[in-house]
């Protein structure tokens, strides 16, 4: 195992513990990167001004630079530092705190249109993005279309994508841009959140606005699918817990809160050193890369007592699953609400969890189980 293949290993947690035992910030020859594995190191790297989200010499991955998906990528707050991150974030993040939870739950339920494993797949991979699109004022039909297009777009974010997937990502980018431009031009009152975002982007190039709206859907897609799937897996692995949750559905929220820490959908993220710096006594040079093991930090006993136990009633839970510092996920409350509502609906309408097969999607950082009916 290495820090990248760990993301989709059946049980990477003993390996993460072995990395922490060697020191929180160590150099890995195999992946030619620094590895931040302890909570202290993960926190220090994520908060360090000289650890950036992209290498300065390659702000957009070569595979998509100069093409439609690359143009969107280049504007995303997630992929930028300085004003190009702060400005879109200040327009988008505040409205995320005012989202109506009841409305989110109602949309999740309404979007669950098929029973069985197909419905489960829909609940993981179509429903969450469709809810975010609906929050931005799209109709139910357009929300589902946007969700399917987002699935194609996110292929541009993975180094594992092949030429056909990248081609589909470029095509989807054009369609997403058209749909968002139309939505913005409608200038109606369908979404107070979108109205606030547009006001926040006044005077900024329209491409910046459209790219960051696409970014919201892209950020939702795989991570929320993973969060829902990992909670379902926790129940498949522990029939007594499944029984308890069925008896007491109010425990779904606490379960989801613990699973995001215990088995996070985004296992790692990257940073790139842009100026010589010293982190926890280790000297880092410009041009060096750091794999930041969020999932390992969550299991650090210095962060949470008894970290390897899944405890729905854990007190003072601490987690890096949504990042930390200036790029910390602004969508975490929404993600948790969507995931809890989705899991509740899955438990009502999907097949018995013990009748499902599953495998992790190939990924360098996402831990996203995909389910199918057992033959
Ligand atoms: C379970 C679901 C989710 C997880 C685990 C997750 C996790 C993360 C993480 C770890 C980061 C920081 C990455 C880094 O610093 O390298 C991040 C950033 C971000 N997330 Fe989420 N996310 C989720 C859902 C969402 C949702 C639903 C939205 C919005 C609708 C969203 C919007 C964003 C945005 C815009 C950023 C970039 C923030 C910035 O760079 O300033 N995320 N997310």
Key traits:
alpha+beta; five-stranded mixed beta sheet; 375 residues; 10% strand; Cytochrome p450; binds protoporphyrin IX containing FE; two-stranded antiparallel sheet
Strand and helix map with partners:
Layout: H1 13-22, E1 25-28, E2 33-36, H2 39-47, E3 51-52, H3 68-75, H4 83-96, H5 101-111, H6 116-125, H7 127-135, H8 140-153, H9 163-186, H10 192-200, H11 206-237, H12 239-247, H13 252-262, E4 268-273, E5 277-279, E6 282-284, E7 289-293, H14 294-298, H15 332-349, E8 356-360, E9 369-373
Parallel strand pairs: 2-7
Antiparallel strand pairs: 1-2, 3-4, 4-7, 5-6, 8-9
The protein binds protoporphyrin IX containing FE (HEM).
